[in-house]
Task: structure prediction
Amino acid sequence: MTSAMFLILIVEDDPGLRAILRTLLQAWPYRVVEASTGERGVIEARSHRPDLMIVDLGLPDCDGATVIREVRKFSPVPILVLSARAMEVEKIAALDAGADDYVTKPFSAPELLARVRAALRRATRGTDRLPLLRFGPVTVDLTARTTLGPDSNLHLTPLEYRVLECLARSAGMIVTQQQLIREAWGPERIGDARGVRSYIKTLRQKLEPDPRRPRFLITEAGVGYRLQLQEEPADK
Amino acid sequence: MAESERGDPDQLLAAVQRDEARARRGRLKVFFGASAGVGKTYSMLEAARTARAAGADIVVGYVEPHGRVETERLLEGLEQLPFLEVRYRGITRREFDLDAALKRAPSTLLVDELAHSNIVEGEPRPRHAKRWQDVDELLDAGINVWTTLNVQHLESLNDVVTGITGVRQQETIPDRIFDEANEIELIDLPPEELLDRLKAGKVYLSGQVATAVDRFFRKPNLLALREMALRRTADRVDAAARAYAGDERSSRASLARDRFLIAVALDDQAEQLVRVGKRFADALDAEWLVVSVETPDMLKLGEEARNLRINVLRLAESLGAQTVTLDGPSAAIALIEYARLRAVTRIVIGERKRRGWRALLRPSTATELVRRGRGFDVSVIARREAPREPQRPDRVARPRPVRWERYWAALLISLLCTGVDALLYPYFELTNLVMVYLLGATIAAWRLGRGPASLTAVVNVLAFDFFFVAPRFSFAVSDLQYLITFAVMLGVTLAIATLVSNVRAQTRVAGARERRTALLYAMSRELTATRSVENLARVAIKHVAETFTGQAVVLTPDASGRLRSPRGTPSPASLRGADLSVAQWVFDNGRPAGLGTDTLPAAAAQYQPLKGTSLTLGVLAVRPTQRRRLQLPEQQHLLETFAGQIALAIERARLAEEAEAARVTAETETLRNTLLASISHDLRTPLAVIAGASSALNDPELSLDSEARGRLTATIESTTQEMTRLISNVLDLMRFEAGEVKLHLDWHTIDDLVGTALVRLDGVLQGHQIDINLPDNLPAVFVDAPLVTQVLANLLENAAKHTPAGTQIDISAGLEGQLVRVVIDDNGPGLPPGDAERLFAKFQRGRGERGAGGAGLGLTICRAIVAAHGGEIKAMARPAGGARFVFTLPTVEPGS
Result:
């Protein structure tokens, strides 16, 4: 699917910011439709059925989580939220309500676009084969459950594979701890944050070239984890 | 010592305030007459009807027709307020309803019988004891009042009228009400016509016995009363003329103003003297003082005498005198000293007849005054022959029970003396033996009091006579000179005993007085050391309750001006159950009420307003265990003084609170202004960069190659990032200072936090070497992740900005007890010289900062965040060179 076939709905009240988002996305190129209030946004979502929504959490008429919940009643469309720096609580509430990822204002264009792409990728991947994960010199094949790298002793446990898989399915997107636990350990297990952390730590030690300065397995403290991979050429 | 009263600024201010108050006050018109029956009520109603016909809002507040037909006829057509039904002892009377009048608030209200006493014990209870007080309240509320009054009702003329008519007038009004009335209309009726009307039954006389009526309504009486009424009205005209002529005369007079001192003893003449004093003072427009001297004799007087004193002093106060109570061994000396102190020009004293030998021994006070009082005129007022029986103060025996043991002790002393003398007899002359008896009698006088001492003296004499004077063992006396010895011994003993008991009584009184003064002083001192209003109230209550032997409470208003009971634990001295409605009245009207006053005198406690310089601050309520306590004018004065002190203290506390609030506001203002100044400066520079770069890119005339364009756009990007960091810092700091930051605490590992920070600062840290050294087994910390990430980011950014490219930055951490210690080192130029603590203050910029921005707030925020977590942050120089920043974070949940 070429990017020009994707329709992105922008729900943003500030006209300046709306203009920038429009310019950025159309330059990619994506098709763009806009709404300036949350209410309008829900209506547009219903009528246009976009492939992705960008929702600003600071909307005047209702808070972002409400919009997300409304949309989630009828659509699984990937939703990216724009949050201001001090809005930690609202951001997490939005993710809990069903948002898929977030971008903090002021944002950098490459970062925003990367997250848009990651979200669209996940939506279209479906049951496709998972690609190979390249961690610098180390490569991981999730489907075959093997690793390739200079260190022949590198070995990942099944649970570690599952964790990686969960992260890889949402490559480039934030995965909350709860999500990770649910997918890797199963829905009955309710979070022990420390357990997850130790797994991530181990994975870092095994996969990252410099485990102390992770480039791929990123922790976003208080929110979750993000697997930041090198871009695949097939995306453009 | 006489003060010049011209142009005294306080007086002028008081005068201005009086004028203002007067302008707001209602106007009082008095229909004045010589006696009942001259037609005052009639004239008043006629005038009211005329006014009503002209359209005035005039309402009848209280007029009792008492069955007079003409009166009833006049009342028709006028709006009348309903009577207040007051039940008292099974009888229902119709009285004036003050609250209904205040509610109706007409332009003018008619209230008959100004001197009437309200039924204080009735149900419902009237607010004031006297109708003139009701009228006073109406006037304060801005309602004009018309009323009626007879000349005999004037307080200062009361005794004169009684003297003329032989009938004692019970209901009186203070002269000031009459003097301050706006208009007096004299209703004059020749006595013959009045007597005719009386015979025709047209005069209503309330509850007076027929004989009394006959005595009153005799032509000479009526003539005299008529003359008094005329004269009094004329006096008013004269006074008005004088006032109109300006203050010239009074200011001239003030320099040579007379000041009278009326000395009252506790006899039947006291009241007369007070009234005389009032007339003197009025006639000469002088100040007058009424002084009562408590000599040791007075102290022995009974309850009735004390009552008399209270009444006399209260009368004096109500007539406008200052009252003073002095004490001392001699009335004359005390009076003269006080008169000198107060620059009195004339002393007025009553005649005091001492009978018989007493007059020889001790001259009367009047005589003493005349002799010693150089510089004063002394007027001795002869006793008026009052037709009722003179009330002599009863020299009742002291209420103390007879102490029999002292009498036995007295006898014992005599016995001892006799015994000693018996031993000495063979060796000494009789003259010396007498000394032993004298000594014994002196000791008895000193220790046992007058009665037992007298007994000792007598027994001593008898014993001396019997045992030692020849012929021994008989009561005969051979040498008559011993009679003199006996007499002298007896006399000396009695004199000493009297002296001792006098001194003791005086000491007691002086001690009591001194104690009261000391209490006032103690309270004042403690008040000055107290800050908050609640504490002030507590201190005040403690002292007031102690001084007046009872309970007290200080009531302060809430935001809406309603008094509330104080919160907080009551002390034993607190008065609970104070009547808030009475207190509210006191607060609103600024006048005292309750026990000992004329307003609601049946209340259990007295309520004093606490008046500050511009408004009433609260109410002090005092309930003494002995009701009578507060009725003494001096106790009343003392309470008012206490109230004044408390009010001042409360005002001071309030002003201090306001000053503090103003200071805080000013400080906040200053901080905000500094912040704004700093931000505006620090934002302008990056804005300028962005403006320049973006406008260059937009400029069609400028031809930039792609490299140049690339540089400009890169500059715009990095500058906006800097501005973002600056604004974040400022906003964070402002939120912290406003107390709006709530920590969302959770468990995180240091490496996660460091990692997040590093990702955020990726661009800034390029060109620096970052070395991370975090032990594996480091426990998680219980922190607010975004905030601690901010700390790390700020510290790293700091390190990057203050060190040249290529500098190494080390991040390490370790466990220290229950804390994790995080260290950020660099090997750059190190900290600027001076106190490292300064770096954490607001708006401190380091040395050699590359690029503007940050506003010097980064470290301040770090400290605020770390402190909010209960940790510490410090900066120090590394021994090997470079800077080190260390901070601690908790590994346990707070409270566990």
In short: Chain B has 28 helices and 25 strands. Residues 1-5, 387-398, 848-854 of chain B have pLDDT under 50 and may be disordered.
